[in-house]
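Hey team,

Filing this mostly as a record. A colleague (T.K.) asked me to run one chain through the structure pipeline before their review meeting, and I want the input and output archived in the tracker in case anyone asks later how it was produced. No errors, nothing strange. Just documentation.

Input sequence:
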Amino acid sequence: MKELARHIMVDFMPMKTFAEDPLILTEGRGIYVTDVDGKRYIDGLSGTFCMNLGHGNRAVVEAATRQMERLALACPTLGTSDRALELTAKLLEITPPQYTTVKLLSGGSEATESAIKMARQYHKQTGAATKYKVLSHYRGYHGATGHAIAAGGWPGWRAPYEPLAGGFIHLHTPDLYTPLVPGNADTLGATYARLVEEVIQLEAPETIAAFITEPIMLSAGVVVPPRDYLPRIRDLCDRYNIVLIYDEIITGVGRTGRLFAAEHWNAWPDILCLGKGMSGGYAPLSATVLTDRIARAFWGDAADGVQFHAGHTYGGNPVACAVGLAAIREVEEQRLIENARERGSQVKAGLADLQRRHQAIGDIRGEGLLVAAELVKDPATRERFPAAFNAGIRVRDAARRRGLLLRAAPSMVVFAPPLTTTAREIDEILGIFEDALAEVLPPSEGARALAAKARA
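Output structure:
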């Protein structure tokens, strides 16, 4: 089977590199997956931050099976299904009361793309047709479709397709660990927000349609913004009539130890984008959830033709909706949000202990079971290793050889196992990571001496 690997395109990986050492998975149970050679791994990144319930959840599998036997597709250009309506009702039940309308889709890129389109169309239909520009952060990621790529903040992901659609303006990442402006946790939120307002004014407020951001920015390095940053952004969007969009494709449905990451700041968007963990990874499913203020602009009839002018064949698919209902129910009934908080605290504590014994860990950040360890050459100056050294990628590969799958970038490693992970399994993850880190970045003599002193 491995010889077939040269014929498949895998996400964000050169084909030749993948074919030389392909990871081909065949089974999964709990937090573990098995490859074609029978080697078992801990799924330390939940597939791609999807498998909140782990692998082999019977309740979800049975819900999908029952629905497949009952109704597999529901004429999406003519109507909907009872399951789609039930899922809509559930999403409105678990979100704050200002949300009244749901557009069901089948992937994160579809959700963020739709949200951007909704924001632009909203302004055209409410008398502010000059508003079309979209603000987003450098280093952010919002998906792989046209508008989503344009909103993304990494040049490497945009460059192959440029020129992209116009009207996308990028802002500096509200990073506390390596800020580009002087300040600290108490002052940087206001500073970053002032920079945003300056951009709004220089671009002309009457041209700004939307601001899209991840509340916790995964691709930027699991950047948790200053505590007052998102509330300030919410205020700016209200002041300048800008639609605020949260990309909670990864952070939604329990991943950060809250049902939604917005709860950490109590600053809610006008459009909430959900996906990934919404179905536990068992079916392609996503959603945009709209406040009543936004939704009213799309309330039309055959006479005026007002509607949202976009759709997808598998959006609101009844099988996916049945899976989503079962997955959300499992998160609630199994108290997985509480477990995410507890196990996330365990990950942070374990990494902090390792940090005291290993100088390569510069920062530990995140919420719930979305935690990053930043790898640095010098913790005092926060100097990173050269990008070409690929410290995080090397540690990730060393962990894979030991049976642990992790997300990584050149300067960080991310821990995001299923929300079902136990305390014992977290200890296993941390033990493998420590061995992988020591292989790639052996502790210096000074670090060993400090560790021995700490133990004494």
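Quick notes for T.K.: Residues 336-357 form the longest helix (22 residues). The CA atoms of residues 139 and 156 lie 10 Å apart.
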